[in-house]
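Discussion board: Methods & Data

I've been asked by a reviewer to show the raw model output for two of the constructs in my manuscript, not just the figures. I'm not sure how much to include, so I'm pasting the format here to get opinions. Each protein appears as its amino acid sequence followed by a line of discrete structure tokens. Is this the kind of thing reviewers expect to see in a supplement, or should I convert it first? Here is construct A:
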Amino acid sequence: MSKQNQTVKLNYFRKFEGDVSTVTRPEKFTFPFYYSPDQLSVQAAKELQTYLLEHDEWNKEFWSENGGKMFGVLVVENEKNEIGYLSAFSGRLFGENILSFFVPPIYDILDENCFYHKGEDELNQLTKQIIELENSEELKNLIAFYQKESECSEQEISNYKLKLKASKKRRDELRSSGSFDEEQLIKESQRERYQLKELSNQWKKKLSDIKVQLDEYQEQISTLKNQRRILSAELQEKLFQEYRILNSKNTYKDLIELFSNKTDGIPPSGAGDCAVPKLLQFAFQNNLKPISMAEFWWGASPKSEVRVHENYYPACKSKCEPILNFMLEGIEMEENPLLNPENEVTELEIIYEDDFLLVVNKPANFLSVPGKSKLKSVYDIIKANYPLAEGPLIVHRLDMATSGLLLVAKTLAIYHDLQSQFIKRTIQKRYVALLNGKIEQNEGIIDLPIRPDIEDRPRQLVCFEHGKKATTKFEVIEQKENKTLIYFYPITGRTHQLRIHAAHQLGLNAPIVGDELYGSFSSRLHLHAESLEFEHPISKKRIKLKSEGRFE
């Protein structure tokens, strides 16, 4: 190993300050998208948090309105068989990419010699030219002059047409009186129509001359915008190619290659800059064997997202899944708990059934309908058990993690009838949930608009600008030992609505127990669709069903 690499390892590889000799070492590496951190990762995270607490100026920023930061730790073994850990932050920290204690980025875009700066300068120059053209006094005056002349044109032509109308009326009266020279009246009519045509042509020519000048400006602006678009795309592609991602097999791929199978083939903004890819890249470059990992949030939650101080979170899928799938090739990893054969469902508990519909009790961590994965769903089981049933079958959906009552139609007509009831909001649903925290109000309504987090699906965001209206009524059942048992009555049905409304700081600020996306990992999400009330499409009777949630 080179002296340079030895120095690098000394700078970033940290031995545990606490005694970890009795801590059981994980047999397999952490499954990054759904995990409970092992003891070594927890100890590494605590030591990193102690380091963060030593920097008062940092913590002031972490708890400011800008919000906190996601940090990651990677437990590793060096060539001397010593156990230690590496630390990293996602994105930038206070505008910096490189800070002591934390591993460097995969590619340092902030390096003063980076090609990106020159490209950004060119983009900024083009943007400046576009803004100067769009805001030039000459263009503004030209637009105003064109608008004024257009209005004058319309007014003058309109007035002349009124004059022609009056002339026609006069000629018609002369013809009715019987005292007229028809030839003279015809010539007069022809002359007036000719004058109208001439007037229209004059204005058309005048406006056309002004429009030519306007088009010249717009063409300049369009040309500059097109140059900027092409340069930006080229710059972005070159940047993606500079992110050379390394895996345990000593194989490199850039971001373009890793995201080529995605819908548009374009890596999302910030791909490669999250904590875990940084940590694995450094480990592979320096012959450090990964043992386990964890990511945690430190500081205040952003206004739109739901992040809880010191909580552990899975790696984001939109940015990290293609990267980590490649980086972890050849590393023995824990199984995705959701794919565990022991959790496979072959039969569903049927709460109600007749010739037209049925209601099943969906287990937690089980899909309502087929997704991108090969996981079995309620739909698959229903389709297998009722091969003659027609239509979409599943009338509404529950999140994979949520258990409870799910309505299934056996015919297309029944499906449409029940769907209509959902649209009209005549179907009543009640969920029971266990929250991590105590609620001050005994009941109330939460009204927070929600939209998808396009950079980290399937997570959702609270967004007052682009979010869809989402409303939930709640009623506290019991509070005990900093836990709250609660009823939720969703008025709208947005994705993750109850989970967001429970966890967000503007909602109840108490995440549902076991919510790994917006709270803390547990054996399951403690959210259950407990009761369902609807009008039977055939008998027209109100059907009321209940399945009590059990949160052992």
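Construct B, same format:
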Amino acid sequence: MRYLGVAFILVVLSSCKPEPMEKADFLILNAKIWSDGMTDPYDAVAIKEDTILAVGFSDDLKARISPETRLIDAGGAFLCPGFIDSHVHFLQGGANLNSVQLRDADSPEEFIRRIADFAKKAPAGSWITGGDWNHESWGGELPDRNWIDSVTAGHPVFINRLDGHMALANTKAMELAGIKANAADVPGGAIVRDASGRITGIFKDNAMDVFYSAIPAPGPDQEDRDLQAAMAYVASHGVTSVHHMGTFADLAVFERNRKNGRLITRIYAATPLGQWEELVKKTEADGKGDDWLHWGALKGFVDGSLGSHTAAFFEPFTDSPADTGLYVNTPENLRSWIMGADKSGLHVVVHAIGDRANNLILNIYEETEKADGPRDRRFRVEHAQHLKPADIPRFARLGVIPSMQPYHAIDDGCWAEKVIGPERCKTTYAFRSLLDSGATPAFGSDWFVAPPIPLEGIYAAVSRRTLDGKNPDGWVPEQKITAEEALKAYTSGAAYSAFEDGKKGRIEKGKLADLVLLDTDLIHADPEAIRSAKVLWTMVGGKLVFEK
């Protein structure tokens, strides 16, 4: 019996032995770690393949070192989850990197000179697109095709304002698109004419569509180059995931590059809301993708933009008393598409800029929930730019995510008051009010419209100092938020807005190893130091995709 007892004890003791500690492929030591929900001052992260294996203290995690483990001593640098840009036009952004650069053209003369210089180097007869001009940079006068016709001979030109809701076409482009002198406006769009009735070359919102049919589609090689340029650019700014707002054709580009193993940025691809039935068929046939590329979101539009005077407001524009903006899609179509998509279990995200547009989409979301019953929908309003005060608490109450772009606040803030007046500006990009009401914002850039640089976005949300330098204490300063709140919106909030909070957005065991190392402690830095901070490296899935 004594022998049996000893044997039993030995069996019990051997069964209590700890499992051998799993070794890390990658071990980051001596970092200053920030993550939403982290309360301990951890300074080390162990990574196995594409996943975080453990988070803890450097002395403890050194036990996970093997001869094959790659070590990184962060030297006290700031480590946080990889930034998630929750609103980009990714392929267009990549294409625009190689196009004429007009964003900072500050006079008509500079605007014309840059187009002329670009046209001289462009292949004969090729379309000149992109541009991202802003007429507010030279006082608000809209450009005219007469400005550029003489310097773009042989080149059709269709260059967009930086918000993407208005573009300038030269005469050659209008000819190729079949635009006649008596062309009529289209619903949800406008063709601008001068005092004599001549078409100036400015086309707004739905009136732009005819040009998209005329511009030759890029071939697969060009699409892939645009995508690679976009991914490399955002990686250099710490972005590890993007939410792309585009077309079914874009989805095919991403799928091709996923199949070839060429993605270094994780992509959540949204397709057009009006084509929701096609996305139903796609998900039934192919599922919704994987950790690198997934779909299931539908992007719709209520209205246009503030800068193009196509945002839908209850009251007229201050500088255009007869104009309250427009709906790009009818309320009836929006309601039908959203309810159909929702019944099919798809994710609805809708662009709304003006207060009337935001009110409408919140009403439709509320109607949809009442019709279909409660569930975890995570409806999103893209931009949520100008809100009636009474609509602000509705986001939290309805569980609607305000998907916002902080950089727009310091850009539009240079001129918004002359367009809508100071009273409506009080709830423009209302970050503080939305957070205080219990909403969960997701932050992004709207690239190509604004730079896909989260550090610029965090700076904008924290300081609200406009780009013209005229608001050193912040434009509508009561809407400032803290750096930590902005970081959450770029990480855990953005992950939540794509149903990905179970796998990304925080530094914790089991999450994907998507990380960014910065030379500045964003939590304790002043706004200017945040803006000038540098990305030291960016990691996606346990692999470094950018190193400074």
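Answer (T.O., handling editor elsewhere):
This is acceptable in a supplement if you add a one-line summary per construct. For B, something like: Residues 1-15 have pLDDT under 50 and may be disordered.
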